[in-house]
Amino acid sequence: MPQKPMRLPPLKGLRVRAPLDKKTESPCVAMMSSLLGFNTSGCAALENALRTCMDSPPPQDTPRNTINFHLARMYDRVILSGRRKR
Predict the structure, then answer these.
(1) CA distance 72 to 77
(2) Taking the CA atoms of the chain, what radius of gyration do you get in angstroms?
(3) How far apart are CA 40 and CA 46, in angstroms?
(4) 34-40 CB contacts, 8 Å cutoff, 24+ apart
(5) What are this entry's molecular-function GO terms (predicted)?
(6) Is residue 31 within 8 Å of residue 50, measured between CB atoms?
(7) pLDDT for 43
(8) Segment 20-76, tens digit of pLDDT
(9) Model confidence at 12, in pLDDT bands (50, 70, 90)?
């Protein structure tokens, strides 16, 4: 006996979620933590390194992915084409 095809529930919208492991930290966090946990004799060099790190411009963010914009734009075409086949 042939099996019935699996039917998916209707979608409210198409969307791709961003990965959760993309949290970026400041590049100066490592220097600051080493400065706080270091003895007083070595603080001068670490302080200068931290100052240069803080004075440098922040790294440029990567451009955002536009896939959700395009999925939202194509949503009506995808849903309507699926309904016509019934």
Answers:
(1) 10
(2) 26
(3) 10
(4) none
(5) structural constituent of ribosome
(6) yes
(7) 76
(8) 665 667 777 777 777 776 666 677 777 888 888 888 887 777 777 788 888 888 888
(9) confident
User: Which two three-digit tokens encode residue 66?
Assistant: 């536009």
Which long-range contacts does 70-75 make (Cβ < 8 Å, 24+ apart)?
71/13, 71/14, 71/15, 71/16, 72/13, 72/14, 72/15, 74/14, 75/13, 75/14
Reference 46, options 58, 31, 57, 26; nearest CA is 31
Give me 50's structure tokens. Answer: 């931290």
Confidence of residue 86 (pLDDT cuts 50, 70, 90): very low
Q: Which residues of 53-79 are buried (b: 16+ CB within 10 A; e: fewer)?
A: eeeeeeeeeeeeeeeeeeeeeeeeeee
What is the mean predicted confidence (pLDDT) over 78-83?
64
